[in-house]
Amino acid sequence: MMETLLHWDSSIFHWINSGWSNPVFDFLLPAARNKYVWLPLYVFCITWILFNFTLKQGSIILLFITVSIFASDTISSSLIKKQVQRPRPCHEQQMIPPVIGRVPCGGGYSFTSSHAANHFCLAAFLVTVFGKYMRRWKHIWWAWAAMISIAQVYVGLHYPLDIIGGAILGMIIGSSMGILCRQQIRDGILT
Question: How confident is the model at residue 54 (pLDDT cuts 50, 70, 90)?
Fold first, then answer.
């Protein structure tokens, strides 16, 4: 069973890493996984929160976001990766066809993807806390997290199962912390 799952994981990895190769993705997807590309979005979110809620509410929301992402990153990077110790695809010298590395491989292990965990954590938190205000726009947060996560496979840093594991971890933490955050806002604006 595990051997079959890993075979499928490797096949899907090659399909994305090699099969999707084209100049547009070669430009867009490495950039999509870069945190500095999204800095204006993060600044916009912080500004929106601070302008639409009291200072106390905004501070609580930003504190919960910070704790959520810290928890997601720490659990993924310091706990799960060190326990599982799955090598990154870009470190696999015997892989056929060879991995197309579009960014430096770096160190560390592969499972779970911290990029996926952190971005799905943020998406889950924002949808949980602000979902009724976002309506159809909330789907954009899921698409954003998915695009960044798939970019990790495209550039050769993660297998699809790494992404799925990170996404599940991030969604559990983000939605749980979002529920706790909503409970902390006492005047009913967010509930």
Answer: confident
